[in-house]
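Internal ticket #5521
Category: modeling
Description: The requester needs a full-assembly model to guide mutagenesis choices. All entity lines are attached below as received. Residue total reported by intake: 908.
Assigned to: D.W.
Attached entities:
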Amino acid sequence: MASTTGNAEATPDVTGAVEGDDGVRRRDFINIAAVSAAGVGGLAVVYPLVSQMAPSADVLAESTTELDITTLEAGQSIKAVFRKQPVFVRRLTQAEIDAANAVDVSSLRDPATLDEITQPGHGDVLVVMGVCTHLGCVPLGAQEGENKGEFGGYFCPCHGSHYDTAARIRKGPAPTNLAVPEYQFTSDTTIVIG
Amino acid sequence: MSFPWAKEYQPQNGVTKFLDEKLPLPRLVYNAVGAGYPVPRNLSYFWNFGVLAGFFLVVQIITGVVLAMHYAANTQVAFASVEHIMRDVNWGWLMRYTHANGASFFFVVVYIHIFRGLFYASYKPPREMIWLLGVTIFLLMMATAFMGYVLPWGQMSFWGAQVITGLFEAIPLVGPPLKTWLLGGFAPDNAALNRFFSLHFLLPFVIAGCVILHIWALHIPGSSNPTGVEVKSESDTLPFHPYYTAKDGFGLGVALIIFMAFVFFLPNQLGHPDNYIEANPLSTPAHIVPEWYFYPFYAILRAFTFDFILPAKLWGVLAMFSSILVWFFLPWLDKSPVRSGHYRPLFRKFFWFGLIPTMAALFYLGGAPAEEPYVMLSQIFTAYYFLHFLVILPIISSIERPDPLPFSITEAVLGSDKKAVLGENAEPAV
Amino acid sequence: MIRLVGILIGLGFTFVVLLAFVTGAYTAATEDVAPTAEYTFYEESHGPEAGYSFDGPFGKWDLAQLQRGYQVYKEVCAACHSLNYVAIRDLEELGYSEAQVKAEAATYMVPGVNPDTGEDELRQALPTDYFPSPYPNAVAAAAANGGKIPPDLSLMVKARHHGSDYMYNLLTGYQEAPAELTQQFPDFTIPAGGYYNPYFASLVIGMPPPLLSDGQVTYADGTDATISQMAQDVSAFLTWTAEPKLIERKSTGWPVLGFLLFATILAWLAKKQIWAAAKPRRED
């Protein structure tokens, strides 16, 4: 410290220890160690304080959704809930599949073929999140009689995004196709999402 | 404020210079708890408890804000939401046990802080305002703790709320409507739970405000000390930093070890098992007790069992509130010219052999069942409690002949050894 | 002036509380307060002789025991007692695999809604569901049990002093009321539908002895299902339901205390070192 003038000679007696470079260093070391320990302790406390805001065990436990699609017929959709958000499962008709495959992929805003969107062996089952990629509204078209938009898939009424039968964005402000959640078929008629 | 030899804050670089000009916060800290605050050099470890109380207030606010992120103040789900915190929220059990035991430890350190003030008569002039603010903080703490205990909506939460709000019923005329108004209903229910939650969240910040005033008021005369002799010269003091920051740091470590031992190994020791049963308005627990830190006042409340002009219940309520309100008047009840109990032989005897055993007994009796001999014992000790503060203290402070005081703090520190000299006031290596 | 008023108020409170003391003492001296049967014959819980694996600061769960305890709960207690705050998924902590828990969940039926008609109906439980209550509501529970609702067991161990021990003693403590009791307290009767149990606060409990005979449960792991064994196992299980983080808590505690001890020693050394400069010394 700067203001030890006049006390410099007294210092050896004060500590009662052998003075010299070693002594000074040892004392500095203790203070630095003590302050560092306090710092480490403070940081350790931050960990639970931050982690308590992450999803709790009950929320994580509900992070998968199992769906039975035995009764889902061609042309029908079901609206399920996956992680508190809507998910659309639709069994496509042959006409819808043909319409989707007829599109020139390179002309799309977010190029993808129907085969890439669906899973092998289940090319007629379209599973997408019911969340418009523009600003997160729920698009129409999953339910009977709803507006399916100009391309016969889904239509978001908020800002007029049109999705085709493979849920690809065709018109409107949405930047990408409807998102496909991670899912798998555990049997021919059971889908586990998440 | 402060002493002429207090060191002045010197901003060291551009940033601190800028800050010092625009918003001298570093200067404030420097003068409040830094090297700029000269503190009597003879403070004992009893002077650690003010800082510890501040620490526990911070612990309570942090863990409380966290718990409020997960808690739901609705009688249908409050109990379940606490279980949700305990079982599902990441580290939720740690947050809740820290908060629950933190309340107990907050009271432990505050009680020691208060009784240190009582022994060393720290309430005497010129420190009356510090004391008044302190008693105010204590009252706010009691209100906050009471409302917090209602939130988990267990059996003791519910019946505690019932009993405490029932106290207001004892007030003549306005009592019953006052109780209904406090609860927003005829018994503790959603309305009460919600307002208690709201106030339980608010009051800690009011406490924090009062703590700032408490510290502000402290810095005008400076800290008291075990001799009770005021600071006379620079050799009587040491800068708060690093001397007392180091000492407080060590004290904090010890306190934390004990605190964490409770949180991790005895988290329910200080609570009541009945509060793990969801509130049931149709079934009263075998005996209703408040949290342990209210026991002395609960014992005083229950000691009044005889209708003398006023109903016994009203006497109990008056006595319970008076038992704390009497602290407000201590600066004017105690007229002794000497502060510290070390130099007041009569005062000291009554303190150690009267007040302290009385408080210990009341702590025990408040948690004991309302049956003999406990009731009779609480009556004896309640009588002593009031006699001590309102009768004995004023009288002995007039009649007792204090022991000779040291001339100064420096003299007290050096003792009788004529050859002793003080260590330098130099800043030690930091 | 303040002191005069203070003295008067102080004497006033003292006078009133001493009046209460005198009347109380008079009553105590003139009226015999007979000890109650509860006071004389109640026994403190002491738990099984060997104690539990989770006792003490270094305790650990005995997962096999918890699984056995769960079996006892399911086959015996669950007929009347709910476990409201425990989710079926929590069973994974007892060492069951995800698939086992899923299969276990399927053995429970929970209230649901028919997706087509919207009518209330029971559906198979999922791991995310909570253990279903044996009764649809409190009124039904009371009606089926002579007016007394079988309490929820999730937190029972924490809702009693020395809960794990209490649970064990309660389950094994059913007995005939001792002869001295009826001699000493002729008024003491056991009402119809009540059972004498010295570990229960009022000595008479409404719950019929749940563990009646050895072998009442056939343990999957082949452990001999004596009454004492079943009582211990289910007490251990209910300790887990009350405090699932018990072991996590204790094992987190040690490093925390160790670190604090280390930091406090450093703080002590730093304090000593800093104060050395201010210590009085002899000028020789």
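Resolution: model delivered.
Comment from assignee: Chain C touches chain B through 64 residues (CB under 8 Å).
Ticket closed.
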